[in-house]
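Support reply, case 0932

Customer input (verbatim):
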Amino acid sequence: MDYRPLGNSGLMVSKIVLGTVPFGGANGFEKAASVDVDGARRILDVAFDAGVNLVDTADLYSVGVTEEVTGKALGNKRNDIILATKGRSPLGDDPNNTGASRYHLIRAVEASLKRLGTDHIDLYQLHNWDGLTPIEETLEAMHHLVTSGKIRYYGTSNYSGWQMMKMLGKAETHNLIKPVSQQIYYTPESREAEYELMPLALDQNVGSLIWGPLGEGFLTGKVRRGQETPPNTRQGNGWPEPYIHDMERAYDIIEELFAIGEAHDCSPARVCLAWLMDRPGVTSLIVGARTEEHLRDNLAATELTLSNEEHQRLEQLTRPAPLYPYWHRIVSGMDRWDPAEKPFLDRYAETIEHRNDDRSAKSQSDK
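Our regenerated output:
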């Protein structure tokens, strides 16, 4: 297992992180979770033996039950690893039992500490943006939680680029502790993070923990064109995520993952993870598994080396469309590209060049 710095911090985290959504299975999470304490303990042991050093959970998962299962399963190994959780989500009907207010965040951290059976959280993440609470209040609450010793570092999750930059800028302006990481969704089928969030990560030295790298089970090989998805899987039992932009394109991506997997005698899931691991700006991939077999397969992605040609095949097939203002910079011949954007703009330029060639060829044929 290799380890990477978590943004602008001294923490070194494994390239694979263990997610805990499958632990518990209550309060609306029954379709995604079913692992009890004993099962969680076995899965944790497999992960730790492979070198995983970060476990990620949230108060939202099974509405607290997942944290309880995680805490009990960790037992005396708690201080051997980095423990991360998240808060901000609505956990009831009380209008103050949600959001990123000082009131809610301090209470949420204290409740998570009790459920996890620990005296501190190594990485606390704001699970989503709060559009009502002043950002200064949120930053002051996080600063207080770090200086009080209840948390060691903090990050965000599911923020847009401008929201994350607002947080970083306001923290710097007011001399408050900054977030060191962002937890975001990013897969071969869904690469929107490359428009803003990945360049932000490179430019601001923010760690990027990728949730759902297998598309919430969509890219594991269980979903395939012309086949019925097994009902005992997330994608077969009505789990609402992820949003699929183009189903036919998604099927094409799955078939390419299978084709590359066959060349390496491995699963399409392993290919997917190996490709994502090497994308610019990625720190770690968060994987969650209900069985030891699935977890071992995911962990084996760290040992899979894709060829340059295989990387390019997947990149070209899954490349997102150039949006404004990116296409405008390219067609206008702008120079001085930002180093944080260049890995992505180079690819957009290639797409635009091919489109222009096709347009020119069609124009000639029409004459």
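We compared this against your earlier run and they match. Two observations from our side: The first strand starts at residue 3 and ends at 5. The beta strands are 3-5, 12-14, 16-19, 54-56, 82-87, 121-126, 151-157, 181-185, 207-211, 284-287. Please reopen the case if you see a mismatch on your end.
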